[in-house]
Amino acid sequence: MPARDPLSVVFAALADPTRRAILTHLQHGPATAGDVAAPFAMSRSAVSQHLRVLEDAGLIERTVTAQWRTCVLRTEPLDEVATWVDTHRRLWDERFDLLDERLRTRRGEADHA
């Protein structure tokens, strides 16, 4: 059973290139579902499934006004992903810096032996 914690759901949504392209499109502002679907060589039903995944991950919000379905980008989940990535990048950078220092020390010891 796949993980359902919010961060895992967002990463799973971002794993698909079509969904990332949809998010890029929505960076320019709200768009109708038809506008979102237009650039893709797939059925509207397939695009709708991608929109559902993005909505479930909290990355977009869909509203209905009369016959129009509008999609809006929500950045809060992306902020959470960026925070997670930055935290882990810092931890790994620290570990690599320590490893680098240890290797330099060992090389120096080997050169003096």
From TrEMBL:
Superkingdom field = Bacteria
Q: Which positions fall inside the HTH arsR-type domain?
A: 1-93
Name of one Pfam family that matches: HTH_20
What GO molecular function annotations does the UniProt record carry, in alphabetical order?
A: DNA-binding transcription factor activity
Protein's name according to its UniProt entry: Winged helix-turn-helix transcriptional regulator
Source organism per UniProt: Cellulomonas humilata
